[in-house]
């Protein structure tokens, strides 16, 4: 990679104070201490969660203040470093103050004194500044708007968003001391699940698992037509699961895969788009799905292992959709074979078999019912032990380096999640989340498709200023209740239409429509079922859904709603005008950034297809026969739709064949299609695949002699 490209890639990395050796040494030592403390917090400690969250905040605030200057131009400024040392000490003072002042505060009846005002305001100011310098202006402005809404301008707003207001003292108490603010549930998720898995990823990378993933990808796909493209899909997908950052994944694997794809004959812009799309999907790949999956587990109260279990088939559909684009482009562009690995796949797999032990341990512990934090802790130990089976043994130095790197990787995420806790506190305090859900439901008019379009649009707008995890938290808090309610009610209406409503659920209708009880035992029209459901008081709707659908289906509907939002929140990585993952890939490929973003957006179409499948089919279900059936037909349908979009299957397609493939794709992905119709559509797709392949070979055979004679 050229020096110019390296310099351009630096714009996607935060400037750091590498010119001060003592700062680097301090952060390394603090990182090791924080990693050890967090392992203790998540295993043996019994400290109050407020104290642990404050320690989490102070430790990573010190790292951010010292490591990331306020501006790129200040990275060598000693004066700026002096100011940041004061910020670091201020963060430490907030940590010291909380255990000293907490009991006295409650003894006064939660009445603030001067020091309470000072330290609560100081902590919020530190969070705002550190998020600004590591993430940008969007989130600090959002936090200020939310906090001022509670105490100031909410009372000036008319209509559904009117809020009478709280005192500034109450707001600061809820933000600083309570379990709902910056040290609340989001912070707890940060210092437990998120940090432990980021630390696990740092140990995997230090042990050489990243190199092993690339080697396996090369051996698996390097010797087939379009192999470098498939290496990008496999390698970036697996690496993204470990790294947790789409941009970091793009930079680390793209410097290998993009030049390989260009060497094989792929267009440069397409190569960059494939890398961006594959890297974006890394956070969708089990068993490690990024911070969003842990927050989802907290929101839905569905075990993390259940979330990753139902995410396997959707992730497979997404990565295969990217692979289909690769194969079609390889055929169309006449990509030649590039041998990227002389070793057979089995030999490469066996040579690094010890790298699979930590992942096997993680999956086993999760399936066995251990908590994710415990599973991550044991898996970290297994990384060290497994490394002793290889030439790259992890000793004390390597362990210290992994602990320090894990803390550095966590720093920006920690301050971000703590700051987002302030936004979530405002949403829960003011009830604006319920208001927003009602508004979305009203705009959708009872249409699930319209609601999905509204959420996708909101996700795209939020994604222009928020990282993926933050966008999911905000959008999930605001819109998941409405989406879940609509999806669950749709299932209940279907039961009413079929006359299958359970007796316990029918009893609830006695409160609203006692004269309709007899009708509830028989089939009815969808309009009548909708009208009856509208009569049920809102306070009893939750009970009705539980009695009608059962707790398992209710939990699945809630999980499906959050998964849809989680998937849609990924699209900001590849959707112009702001798509940093695609821009990073464009820098490596030396292609126009915006045009590369459009290519990545096209290739990542699975980000929109899979949420539709989750919403309208049983893709998220415990009925594995149904999941596999939906998944397999969806894979064929996705291939058909992509071929229709590209105008190419195994050979060029005319418009009638493209229209036929659209029809085939729709039949294969449309919900509740008859099995025979899907089988017929699959057979038609396979026939078209074979026919276009034969035609392409014949055209190539005819063209070969004429070109040789010339």
Automatic annotation (TrEMBL):
It holds the Pfam family DctM. It is a multi-pass membrane protein. Its main location: membrane. Residues 123-618 form the TRAP C4-dicarboxylate transport system permease DctM subunit domain. It is found in: Cell inner membrane. Part of the tripartite ATP-independent periplasmic (TRAP) transport system. InterPro entries: DctM, TRAP_DctM-Dct_fused. Signal peptide: none annotated. Keywords: Cell inner membrane, Cell membrane, Membrane, Transmembrane, Transmembrane helix, Transport. This is TRAP transporter permease. The chain crosses the membrane at residues 20-41, 47-68, 80-100, 112-131, 138-156, 189-209, 221-242, 304-326, 346-367, 373-389, 410-428, 448-475, 603-619, 625-645, 652-670, 676-693.
